[in-house]
Design brief:
By secondary structure, the chain is α+β, with helices and mostly antiparallel strands. It folds into two domains: 44 residues, no CATH class; 103 residues, Nucleic acid-binding proteins (OB fold (Dihydrolipoamide Acetyltransferase, E2P)). Helices cover 29% and strands 33% of the residues. The protein has a five-stranded mixed barrel. The chain is globular, with a radius of gyration of 21 Å. The N terminus is likely disordered.
């Protein structure tokens, strides 16, 4: 428990005071402490741009949207892209957090399955059909920023 409280204090910058508590209060404090720790798991899962994408590998594709995931920590959309030989690849494209996208002019319905879009951004380091979308040209011709983490490296 003391080790747990130390980590909470270090990770959250909070002042933690450990009190001598009776049986049921001690259990309540332990459950509350574990609840706070469980909140740190999604934070630890967040990655920096450099961990997954390569600034030196430009991405520029045009294709058909197949799926949109409007969620945190990053919105995502998927695009079918046909190469010169007619082979179709489904690309997984990461956008920024929802609050950043809203400030950039995005709406939940800005992208819909069936929409033709052009995406500029960066490729994944591992060579998968995965990219970080920096700019997206929407079906109506508007170019919107993708809220890319490349614009704010950590």
């Amino acid at each position: 428990m003391v080790d747990l409280m130390f980590h909470l204090q270090r990770d959250f910058g909070a002042v933690v005071i450990i009190l001598k508590l009776g049986g049921s209060m001690r259990k309540l404090a332990l459950v509350a402490g574990l609840g706070l720790v469980s909140l740190t798991v999604p934070l630890a899962a967040h990655h920096s741009f450099e961990a997954e994408y390569d600034f030196n590998k430009a991405l520029n594709i045009t294709g058909t949207v197949t799926k949109v995931e409007w969620m945190n920590p990053h919105a995502r959309f998927y695009v079918d892209v046909k190469d010169a030989n007619g082979k179709v690849t489904n690309w997984n494209l990461e956008l920024g957090p929802i609050n950043i996208l809203l400030k950039q002019g995005w709406r939940r319905d800005s992208l819909k399955p069936g929409d033709q879009v052009t995406v500029e951004g960066f490729l994944a380091k591992d060579g998968d059909a995965l990219g970080n979308a920096r700019k997206v040209t929407l079906p109506d011709g508007r170019r919107v920023f993708g809220g890319s983490s490349a614009d704010n490296p950590r």
